[in-house]
Each structure stands twice: as C-alpha cells, then as structure tokens.
C-alpha cells in the first residue's frame, strides 16, 4: 500500500503540492488527473523517490520513503513523460543494460528479458536503434524498462502523449494487462484514457486533491443527486405524481418529447438506483416503458467544474 500524509512541495515560496493525503491499496489502477501545472508530475516524482517532499510523509508497504528510499525504489517501476531511453542503443542491448543496472540475477536475467520483450510486443524491433523507432515503440521500450525488475508498483506519467489512436489503444491494452498483477498509478490529462483504464480517479488542482472516487461515482455524484430519464407511451396523466411518491425520489419533471410519448426526468438521492422501482410501478399501472437511461455528466464536465479557475 502507498500512503501519503500531508505531503507538500514548494519551490521558492510557490507551493506546487499542498497537503496531499492519499492511500492507494495494492492491485488498483488509479488515474491521477489534473490540468498542466497542477502538481501531478511533482507528486509522482516524490512517491517514486526521485524528489524529496518539503514536508509530510510517504509510506510504501509500511516503510518511510525518507528512511528506506533505496529499498522502496526496488519495488517501483517508473515511466516518466520523456521515456528514459538511449537513442543510439538497440532495444535488446538497452534492456540488457537496464537489467544489469537493476541487478537482476544472472541466472534469470535472460528469461526475464525474454518475458518483457514478449509482454511489450518488442520482438520485431529488438535489433533496431531506439532512435529509429516510432513514438509508440519507444513508449513500449520505456514500459519494458519500467517492469523489467517485476515491480509491485508501476507509475506512468503521460504514457500515451503524442501517440496516434492505434498506438494509444495498444498501450491502453498493455496497461490493463499490467494492472491485473500490479498497482498502477497513471498520471495524465487525457480524460478518455482514465475512463477506459482506471478503477479510481484522483483529481488534483493547484497542488490539492479536489476529488477522489470511481469514474462512475464522480460522474453521478458531483451534482449531489442521481438522474434517470424515463420515456413511456403517452396516456398516464398522473405519472409524475406517482413516480414522485416512490422512496428516494426527490423531484420529477416532465420533459418535452416526441408526439405520443411522455418523458420524465427523475432526480433521486446520490447513489440510489431507482430503475427497478420505476419498472415495478410501470407494471402495476400498465404503463408502456420505452426506455430508462441514467443520465451522468461527462468526465470532461466533472473535470472542468473541479479545476476551472
């Protein structure tokens, strides 16, 4: 588990990270979101041991980063925004070099390199210089160096920046696969990336955590209520009143719709799923339901509301 308690980082009086509290259990893919300059990369660099905090504590598996930095870093794989690769080395030589730096046992080094090559899809480019590779393949090499020592924790800073849609899909699939066996913290400002990949989202703005929840709950809960859009064939004049009498329903409004239809916007308490109750009511009243659609804000809307100046 990774635990941050009141972590701060200042530069010349400017507070880049301001009192961050965060707990990340093992086996989770966490999306770390924020606008440019929000403190994402600074926080990542502190958690991975590449930068000390000005104040606060960072604990990894019960060990204090300040006291056990070298031990903790052995458990961590890190892909910064600019992949730390040597452009004039070929892929195989580079991975052998990284394996040596990571002090992988000689007896298992070759098999581990072979496994990482397969996992990251690098077999076709092993003998090419890294500088000649596409951005997508360079990112794959960066991921390979980050996992070559089989770390328990994997930190990825903007892993799909500058990639084309096909390359993004490939890297996204790889991240999901890695997330089945490792704790992954993914820092990005690409909202669709987080929504497609992560179990949980933490949004940081101006150095402070402003939201922490699952993507679904963030989208549903920011307005403080859950919204269900219901469409049925016209006929029941008392539909609004009867739906409003249901438990957990806070408000019901008729919405203009197509001819021959009745549309209702039903607001209920946060986290309440009232679809079954509405369905059962419709059956009792012989209403003809055409559709029931939970209405959520887009993640872009949530992000904007939480980070807008």
Describe the structure.
The protein has two domains: 218 residues, P-loop containing nucleotide triphosphate hydrolases (Rossmann fold), CATH 3.40.50; 79 residues, Alpha-Beta Plaits, CATH 3.30.70. Helix content is 34%, strand content 29%. It is built from eleven helices and 14 strands. The protein has a six-stranded mixed sheet, sandwiched between helices. The protein has a four-stranded antiparallel sheet with strand order 2-1-4-5, covered by helices on one side. β1 and β2 form a beta hairpin. The radius of gyration is 25 Å and the shape is elongated. It starts with a strand and ends with a helix. The relative contact order is 0.13. The model has no long low-confidence stretch (mean pLDDT 88).
Outline of this structure?
The chain is of the alpha/beta class. It has helices at residues 40-47, 69-73, 91-101, 106-119, 135-147, 165-179, 191-197, 215-221, 239-244, 275-285, 299-307; strands spanning 2-11, 14-24, 29-33, 55-60, 63-64, 76-79, 153-157, 183-188, 200-205, 208-213, 226-233, 249-255, 261-268, 289-295.
Any idea how many domains?
A: 2
CATH architecture of the largest domain: 3-Layer(aba) Sandwich
CATH class membership of the largest domain = Alpha Beta
Order of helices and strands: EEEHEEHEHHHEHEHEEHEHEEHEH
Rg? 25 Å
Helix content: 25-40%
Spatial strand sequence of the major β-sheet: 6-7-8-3-9-10
Mean pLDDT across every amino acid position? 88
Structural class call reads alpha/beta
């Amino acid at each position: 588990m990774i635990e941050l308690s009141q972590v701060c980082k200042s530069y010349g009086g400017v507070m880049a990270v301001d009192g961050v509290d965060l707990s990340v259990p093992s086996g989770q893919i966490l999306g770390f979101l924020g606008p440019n300059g929000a403190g994402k990369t600074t926080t990542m660099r502190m958690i991975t041991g590449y930068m000390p905090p000005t104040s606060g504590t960072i604990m990894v598996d019960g060990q204090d980063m300040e006291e056990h930095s070298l031990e903790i870093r052995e458990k961590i794989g890190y892909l910064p925004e600019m992949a730390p690769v040597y452009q004039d080395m070929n892929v195989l030589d580079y991975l052998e070099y990284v394996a040596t730096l990571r002090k992988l046992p000689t007896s298992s080094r070759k098999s581990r390199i072979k496994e990482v090559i397969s996992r990251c899809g690098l077999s076709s480019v092993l003998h090419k210089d890294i500088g000649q590779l596409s951005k997508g393949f360079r990112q794959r090499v960066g991921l390979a160096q980050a996992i070559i020592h089989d770390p328990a924790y994997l930190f990825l800073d903007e892993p799909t920046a500058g990639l084309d849609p096909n390359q993004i899909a490939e890297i996204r699939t790889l991240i999901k696969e890695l997330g089945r066996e490792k704790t992954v913290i993914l820092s990005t400002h690409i909202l669709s990336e987080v929504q497609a990949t992560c179990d949980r989202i933490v949004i940081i703005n101006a150095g402070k955590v402003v939201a922490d929840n699952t993507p679904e709950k963030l989208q549903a809960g920011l307005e403080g209520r859950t919204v269900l859009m219901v469409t049925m064939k016209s006929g029941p004049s008392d539909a609004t009143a009867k739906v409003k009498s249901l438990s957990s329903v806070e408000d019901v409004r008729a919405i203009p719709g197509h001819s021959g239809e009745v549309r209702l916007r039903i607001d209920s308490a946060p986290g309440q799923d009232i679809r079954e109750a509405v369905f059962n009511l419709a059956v009792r009243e012989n209403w003809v339901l055409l559709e029931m659609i939970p209405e959520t804000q887009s993640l872009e809307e949530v992000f904007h509301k939480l980070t807008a100046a």
